C-alpha cells in the first residue's frame, strides 16, 4: 500500500488555476496521510491564513515548509538543506535551533539528496527525511536524480523516508515509508 505525503505548492496551484480546497480534496481522495503546504514567495501572514484554511478541511498531519515560526498552526515543519544553512552553516546546530522552537512533540523533516546527507541526518533530531530527487520533475531544477539507487540509499536511514522529486502514484519502493507527490496528484 502506498502511504501518501502530498506536497501542496502554492505557486503550482496558481499556475494551474487550482484552488487550495480542490487540491486538498484530491489529496483526501488519494488518502494522503500528510499534506505539506509550501509557499516560497508569500509573506508569513498569507502562509498562516492558508494553514488555518487547510486545517479547517483536512484532519491529517499538516506540515509547513520553511516557516517554522508558524508551528502552532500545524503538526510539523520541513526544511531543505539550503534553508537549514540559512539558519546556521552547521546543520546540527540549525536542527537544534529549529527543534528548540517547534518542540519535541512536533514533526520535523528535512530534504536529503545523497547518501552523505542521509548518514548525516541519522545523527539529527528528526522524524523523517525526504530523499531525492527520484526522477526529473517540472516543479524544480534537479541537478541529479537518484533513480533506482533511491531504495539503496533509503535503506541507510534510521528515520522514516519519503521519496521526493518526480514521484508518481504508481511508483513502488521497498525502503520508503511515504511517496511525496506534488504535481503528480494533479494529473488526471
3D architecture notes:
This protein is an alpha/beta fold and 188 residues long. It is built from seven helices and eight strands; from the N terminus they run βααβαββααβαβαββ. The chain has helices at 10-16, 20-29, 44-57, 81-87, 91-102, 115-121, 149-154, and strands at 4-9, 34-38, 61-65, 76-79, 107-112, 128-132, 160-164, 178-181. The protein has an eight-stranded parallel β-barrel, surrounded by five helices. α3 (44-57) links the parallel β2 and β3 (61-65). α4 packs across α5 (91-102). The longest helix has 14 residues, at 44-57. The two termini are 20 Å apart.
Low-pLDDT segments, ≥5 res: none
Strand content: 15-25%
The CA-CA distance between the termini, in Å, is 20 Å
Widest β-sheet, arrangement of strands: 1-2-3-4-5-6-7-8
Report helical residue fraction.
25-40%
Can you describe this structure in just a few lines?
By secondary structure, the chain is of the alpha/beta class. 34% of the residues lie in helices and 21% in strands. α4 packs across α5.
Write the layout of secondary structure elements.
Blueprint: E1 4-9, H1 10-16, H2 20-29, E2 34-38, H3 44-57, E3 61-65, E4 76-79, H4 81-87, H5 91-102, E5 107-112, H6 115-121, E6 128-132, H7 149-154, E7 160-164, E8 178-181
Parallel strand pairs: 1-2, 1-8, 2-3, 3-4, 4-5, 5-6, 6-7, 7-8
Tag the structure with descriptive keywords.
single chain; 188 residues; alpha/beta; 21% strand; globular
